[in-house]
Amino acid sequence: MQKRKVLVINGSASTTSSNERLIQYFIAQTNHLFDVSVVEDLKKMPHFDPQKSVGEVPDAVQKFRKDVSDADAVLMCTPEYVFSIPSGLKNVIEWSVSTTIFSDKTLGIITASAHGEKGHEELQLIMKTLMARFNTNTTLLIKGIKGKFSASGEVSDEELIRDLSVFIEAFKALVDDEPTLK
Protein backbone atom coordinates (compact mmCIF):
# COMPACT_ATOMS: atom_id res chain seq x y z
CA MET A 1 0.00 0.00 0.00
CA GLN A 2 1.33 3.42 -0.97
CA LYS A 3 2.08 5.84 1.84
CA ARG A 4 -0.12 8.91 2.07
CA LYS A 5 1.55 12.28 1.42
CA VAL A 6 1.62 14.68 4.36
CA LEU A 7 2.88 18.23 4.04
CA VAL A 8 4.09 19.73 7.32
CA ILE A 9 4.15 23.50 7.80
CA ASN A 10 6.35 24.77 10.62
CA GLY A 11 4.98 28.11 11.79
CA SER A 12 8.05 28.92 13.87
CA ALA A 13 10.49 31.56 12.67
CA SER A 14 13.32 29.86 14.57
CA THR A 15 15.43 27.14 12.97
CA THR A 16 16.02 25.40 16.32
CA SER A 17 12.49 25.61 17.69
CA SER A 18 10.54 23.23 19.84
CA ASN A 19 8.12 22.96 16.94
CA GLU A 20 10.92 21.72 14.70
CA ARG A 21 11.72 19.04 17.29
CA LEU A 22 8.03 18.06 17.43
CA ILE A 23 7.98 17.78 13.64
CA GLN A 24 11.01 15.49 13.74
CA TYR A 25 9.28 13.40 16.42
CA PHE A 26 6.12 13.20 14.27
CA ILE A 27 8.18 12.08 11.26
CA ALA A 28 9.99 9.42 13.30
CA GLN A 29 6.71 8.09 14.71
CA THR A 30 4.88 8.04 11.35
CA ASN A 31 7.55 7.19 8.76
CA HIS A 32 5.90 3.79 8.26
CA LEU A 33 2.53 5.50 7.59
CA PHE A 34 3.27 8.71 5.72
CA ASP A 35 5.58 10.19 3.14
CA VAL A 36 6.28 13.51 4.88
CA SER A 37 7.68 16.66 3.34
CA VAL A 38 8.24 19.87 5.26
CA VAL A 39 7.79 23.43 4.09
CA GLU A 40 11.30 24.57 4.87
CA ASP A 41 11.29 28.33 5.33
CA LEU A 42 8.23 30.53 5.49
CA LYS A 43 10.56 33.56 5.70
CA LYS A 44 11.35 33.14 1.99
CA MET A 45 7.71 33.56 1.02
CA PRO A 46 6.97 37.03 -0.38
CA HIS A 47 4.67 39.27 1.63
CA PHE A 48 1.05 38.78 0.71
CA ASP A 49 -0.09 41.06 -2.10
CA PRO A 50 -3.76 40.63 -3.03
CA GLN A 51 -3.10 42.08 -6.48
CA LYS A 52 -0.68 39.22 -7.20
CA SER A 53 -2.78 36.53 -5.58
CA VAL A 54 -4.51 35.54 -8.81
CA GLY A 55 -2.77 36.91 -11.91
CA GLU A 56 0.93 37.39 -11.21
CA VAL A 57 1.40 34.73 -8.54
CA PRO A 58 5.05 34.53 -7.40
CA ASP A 59 6.87 31.24 -8.05
CA ALA A 60 7.30 30.45 -4.34
CA VAL A 61 3.57 30.86 -3.80
CA GLN A 62 2.74 28.68 -6.80
CA LYS A 63 5.04 25.97 -5.43
CA PHE A 64 3.44 26.18 -1.98
CA ARG A 65 -0.05 25.96 -3.44
CA LYS A 66 0.94 22.94 -5.55
CA ASP A 67 2.54 21.24 -2.53
CA VAL A 68 -0.67 21.69 -0.52
CA SER A 69 -2.83 20.52 -3.44
CA ASP A 70 -0.67 17.42 -4.00
CA ALA A 71 -0.67 16.41 -0.33
CA ASP A 72 -3.22 14.01 1.07
CA ALA A 73 -3.07 15.93 4.34
CA VAL A 74 -1.41 18.93 5.95
CA LEU A 75 -0.01 19.25 9.47
CA MET A 76 0.54 22.74 10.87
CA CYS A 77 2.88 22.83 13.84
CA THR A 78 3.30 26.29 15.28
CA PRO A 79 4.05 28.38 18.33
CA GLU A 80 1.95 31.31 19.47
CA TYR A 81 3.50 34.77 19.03
CA VAL A 82 1.93 37.65 20.99
CA PHE A 83 -1.38 35.78 21.44
CA SER A 84 -1.65 35.03 17.71
CA ILE A 85 -0.21 32.83 14.98
CA PRO A 86 3.24 33.77 13.65
CA SER A 87 3.32 36.24 10.77
CA GLY A 88 5.02 33.78 8.40
CA LEU A 89 2.23 31.25 8.87
CA LYS A 90 -0.46 33.92 8.52
CA ASN A 91 1.24 35.17 5.35
CA VAL A 92 1.28 31.75 3.66
CA ILE A 93 -2.35 31.19 4.63
CA GLU A 94 -3.29 34.57 3.17
CA TRP A 95 -1.72 33.52 -0.15
CA SER A 96 -4.14 30.56 -0.07
CA VAL A 97 -7.39 32.46 0.55
CA SER A 98 -8.12 33.15 -3.14
CA THR A 99 -7.85 29.40 -3.87
CA THR A 100 -9.64 26.29 -2.72
CA ILE A 101 -6.48 24.35 -1.79
CA PHE A 102 -7.55 23.97 1.83
CA SER A 103 -11.20 23.15 1.06
CA ASP A 104 -11.81 19.61 2.36
CA LYS A 105 -8.05 19.19 2.91
CA THR A 106 -7.35 16.89 5.84
CA LEU A 107 -5.58 18.94 8.51
CA GLY A 108 -3.81 18.45 11.80
CA ILE A 109 -2.96 21.39 14.06
CA ILE A 110 -0.35 21.35 16.81
CA THR A 111 0.19 24.55 18.76
CA ALA A 112 3.23 24.26 21.02
CA SER A 113 4.15 27.33 23.01
CA ALA A 114 4.46 28.76 26.51
CA HIS A 115 0.69 29.22 26.65
CA GLY A 116 -0.77 28.97 23.15
CA GLU A 117 -4.53 29.17 23.73
CA LYS A 118 -5.22 32.28 21.64
CA GLY A 119 -3.01 31.23 18.73
CA HIS A 120 -4.55 27.74 18.79
CA GLU A 121 -8.09 29.15 18.70
CA GLU A 122 -7.18 31.63 15.96
CA LEU A 123 -5.62 29.02 13.70
CA GLN A 124 -8.64 26.75 14.06
CA LEU A 125 -10.99 29.63 13.20
CA ILE A 126 -8.93 30.57 10.14
CA MET A 127 -8.74 27.00 8.88
CA LYS A 128 -12.49 26.46 9.45
CA THR A 129 -13.05 29.58 7.35
CA LEU A 130 -10.91 28.02 4.60
CA MET A 131 -13.01 24.84 5.00
CA ALA A 132 -10.15 22.55 5.99
CA ARG A 133 -11.17 19.16 7.35
CA PHE A 134 -10.16 18.61 10.98
CA ASN A 135 -11.73 17.80 14.33
CA THR A 136 -10.94 18.24 18.01
CA ASN A 137 -8.91 15.02 18.01
CA THR A 138 -6.65 16.29 15.21
CA THR A 139 -5.78 19.45 17.11
CA LEU A 140 -3.35 19.49 19.99
CA LEU A 141 -2.43 22.36 22.29
CA ILE A 142 0.86 21.83 24.11
CA LYS A 143 1.48 24.37 26.87
CA GLY A 144 4.94 24.86 28.40
CA ILE A 145 6.65 23.16 25.48
CA LYS A 146 10.22 24.10 26.41
CA GLY A 147 10.05 22.00 29.58
CA LYS A 148 8.94 18.85 27.76
CA PHE A 149 12.28 17.97 26.17
CA SER A 150 15.38 16.30 27.58
CA ALA A 151 18.73 18.09 27.62
CA SER A 152 19.52 16.36 24.31
CA GLY A 153 16.35 17.73 22.68
CA GLU A 154 14.22 14.57 22.75
CA VAL A 155 10.56 14.56 23.79
CA SER A 156 10.79 13.36 27.39
CA ASP A 157 7.47 14.31 29.00
CA GLU A 158 5.38 11.14 29.40
CA GLU A 159 2.06 12.99 29.18
CA LEU A 160 3.17 14.67 25.95
CA ILE A 161 4.28 11.34 24.48
CA ARG A 162 0.80 9.92 25.23
CA ASP A 163 -0.92 13.04 23.83
CA LEU A 164 1.15 12.87 20.64
CA SER A 165 0.33 9.17 20.26
CA VAL A 166 -3.40 9.89 20.56
CA PHE A 167 -3.06 12.82 18.13
CA ILE A 168 -1.18 10.68 15.59
CA GLU A 169 -3.84 7.95 15.73
CA ALA A 170 -6.63 10.51 15.23
CA PHE A 171 -4.74 12.18 12.38
CA LYS A 172 -4.12 8.82 10.71
CA ALA A 173 -7.82 7.93 11.04
CA LEU A 174 -8.84 11.23 9.45
CA VAL A 175 -6.29 10.79 6.64
CA ASP A 176 -7.56 7.25 6.02
CA ASP A 177 -11.11 8.61 5.91
CA GLU A 178 -10.12 11.11 3.20
CA PRO A 179 -13.16 11.49 0.91
CA THR A 180 -11.13 12.51 -2.15
CA LEU A 181 -8.37 9.95 -2.46
CA LYS A 182 -5.66 10.91 -4.92
Range of helix content: 25-40%
Which overall shape is indicated by the principal axes computed on the Cα atoms?
Answer: globular
Give the helices and strands as they follow along the chain. Answer: EHEHEHEHEH
* Quaternary structure classification: single chain
Q: Number of DSSP helices? A: 5
Strand count, sense and barrel status of the largest sheet are: 5 strands, parallel
For the biggest β-sheet, the strand order reads: 2-1-3-4-5
Rg of Cα set = 16 Å
The termini sit apart by: 13 Å
- Average pLDDT value? 95
Unreliable spans are none
**Structural class given helices, strands, pairing?**
alpha/beta
Describe this structure in words.
The mean pLDDT is 95. The chain has helices at residues 18-30, 59-70, 87-94, 117-129, 158-176; strands at 4-10, 34-39, 73-78, 106-113, 139-143. The protein is an alpha/beta fold and 182 residues long. The chain is globular and about 50 Å long. It is 36% helix and 18% strand. The longest helix is centred in the last third of the chain and has 19 residues, at 158-176.
